[in-house]
Write a structure and sequence with these properties.
Elements lengths: L2 E6 L5 H10 L7 E7 L3 E7 L2 H4 L2 H6 L4 E7 L14 E3 L5 E9 L2 H12 L8 H15 L7 H14 L2 E9 L3 E6 L8 E5 L6 E5 L2 H6 L3 E5 L4 E6 L4 E5 L10 H6 L5 E2 L2 E2 H19 L5 E4 L5 H11 L2 E2 L3 E3 L12 H11 E3 L1 H4 L3 E6 L6 H12 L4 E6 L27 H8 L3 E4 L2 H9 L11 H4 L9 H23 L1
Parallel strand pairs: 16-17, 16-20, 20-21, 21-22
Antiparallel strand pairs: 1-4, 1-10, 2-3, 2-4, 5-6, 6-7, 7-8, 8-12, 9-10, 9-11, 12-13, 14-15, 18-19
Helix pairs in contact: 4-5, 5-6, 9-10, 9-15, 11-13
């Protein structure tokens, strides 16, 4: 999962891009990049957090009224400096591009681009694949000047060839800005305008909060299978290119998005409150003797407060988070994820001693973080530790852009709830049902008919994910992590 932002402003764009990337830093902490344009491209990319990559010198060097920014954690690509986005091609016209998501058929397309179009993909990042497919489609139309239909035809070529979930923003030098969202709308993408000149400034981003912070208004979702082209005169052209069932990723509302964002008409904060409301009823059925409800900060907090309220239990912020440590789920290496728990969370021991504790988290993926936190709580003298998950059991690899792509990673894989509880050291595990997860989101937008829940039920909504593709992705992730461990040892 990554964060993208593209802006065409009436003044220098770097500070807006920087501010926007800080707002979506939660979507990826592996690397970040900005490319701006003022008749030539200016680039700065690096590994780490946004605040550590960019400084005042870059504000002077990255000039232009147009730019694209990206913050990333690795799906395809191992977090090397050259894998940081945005990416750039010098032909046709000159194109920069960033994306959020994952290309399932990356390996086959990389081979196709090399053999048929003599294009060498020089990184392990799948946005380079999308960029080259898009560029080839433009070149084949041999445009002297781009028209909206030429651009939309190139996007159609991407939709036809790319399997996966993705939201993309690109800028074509001297021609215009393009944004598009995969046919199923798996990944979020919004756009808006800021009336700060005769012609408004325009921006595209992964989450609405990003545009809110930069004072962009009239924020709307990019429709699934749609493209927006802002031409050289900043005229807006929009087209629905592919019509498929809208199937947004449920995990956005569970974990990834900020609570102050609105995704596909769903207020993320309100959806999480509903998750707590519905999960409270599941907990009530167990009859467990609970003394206090404690959230595992931060994404489970809203649900935990509602659970405590519904069950008339004491709510305590008894796990204190070090806010200068990143999100453990999206750390690329397993040894980092485990060792960071104690640096990230410190318990208030007196709140746990001799009490029956209900810990509430957004999900349980591998179980390592959950096990470490439960261990901390037991060390404080808790009598019993129960663990509630705001999402259903995660059992299947995500191929659309979430870093859980090997079957053996999931603690819930081929295990019942009692076995899961033993594995993570809990006295009881309570899961949200998939039915209630969907209900919680639909309570905010009843018009959402279908969702991507592949990580829960194994139903890949694009319908074209083969067992061979799943094995290929699993092998790639395993090799990538082995490479990271070897690099750390070296």
């Amino acid at each position: 999962m990554c964060g993208v932002i593209g802006i065409w402003a009436n003044g220098q764009v770097f500070r807006d891009l920087y501010q926007g990337l800080l707002a979506i830093q939660h979507r990826g902490q592996d690397s970040a990049g900005i490319i701006t344009y003022d008749d030539r491209f200016h680039t700065k990319k690096g590994n780490g957090l946004v605040r550590d990559i960019f400084n005042a010198d870059h504000a002077e060097r990255l000039t232009g009224k147009v730019g694209i920014g990206h913050t990333r954690y690795p799906t395809v690509g191992g977090g090397r400096g050259e894998d940081a986005q945005p990416f750039q091609l010098n032909s046709p016209f000159g194109i920069i591009m960033a994306h959020n998501g994952n290309v399932v058929n990356y390996a086959a397309l990389k081979k196709h681009l090399a053999e048929k179009h003599h294009r060498l993909l020089n990184s392990e990042n799948d946005v380079e694949c999308i960029l080259n497919v898009f560029a080839v489609a433009l070149e084949m139309q041999n445009p002297g000047e781009l028209t909206p239909e030429i651009v939309f035809h190139a996007v159609e070529s991407v939709f036809r060839q790319i399997i996966g979930g993705y939201s993309v923003v690109a800028f074509i030098a001297g021609q215009g800005m393009v944004a598009f969202r995969d046919p199923y709308g798996i990944k979020p993408l919004v756009w808006g305008q800021r009336r700060d000149g005769v012609i408004p400034s325009y921006a595209v981003a992964s989450e609405s909060v990003c545009l809110n912070i930069m004072n962009f208004g009239d924020i709307r979702d990019v429709a699934p299978g749609s493209a927006i082209f802002i031409d050289r005169d900043r005229e807006i052209h929009m087209k629905r290119i592919s019509v498929k069932p809208h199937s947004p990723c449920l995990f956005e509302w569970v974990y990834f998005a900020r609570p102050d964002s609105i995704i596909d008409g769903v207020n993320v904060y309100r959806a999480r409150v509903h998750l707590g409301e519905l999960l409270a009823e599941e907990i009530r059925k167990t009859g467990l003797p609970i003394d206090i409800v404690v959230p595992i900060p931060d994404s489970a907090r809203d649900a935990a407060i509602e659970i405590a309220r519904r069950l008339d239990l004491k709510y305590r912020e008894a796990l204190v988070k070090n806010r200068y440590i990143g999100r453990t789920f999206i750390m690329p290496a397993e040894n980092d994820r485990q060792s960071m728990v104690r640096f990230k969370l410190n318990p208030i021991a007196s709140e746990f001693k001799d009490r029956n504790v209900l810990l509430v988290d957004d999900s349980i993926v591998r179980g390592n973080t959950s096990r470490a936190i439960i261990g901390l709580v037991r060390e404080c003298g808790a009598r019993n530790v129960y663990f509630a998950s705001c999402s259903p059991p995660l059992r299947h690899p995500c191929v659309y852009g979430i870093d859980m792509q090997t079957r053996t990673e999931f603690v819930a894989r081929d295990r019942d709830f009692e076995d899961i509880a033993r594995r993570i050291g809990a006295d009881r595990v309570i899961y949200q049902t998939q039915e209630n997860l969907i209900k919680a989101v639909r309570m905010e937008n009843p018009n959402l008919g279908r969702f991507c829940a592949a990580c829960f039920d194994g139903n890949y909504v694009t319908g074209d994910v083969t067992p061979e593709m799943l094995q290929s992705i699993e092998d790639e992730r395993r090799n990538m992590r082995t490479g990271q461990m070897e690099l750390q040892i070296t």
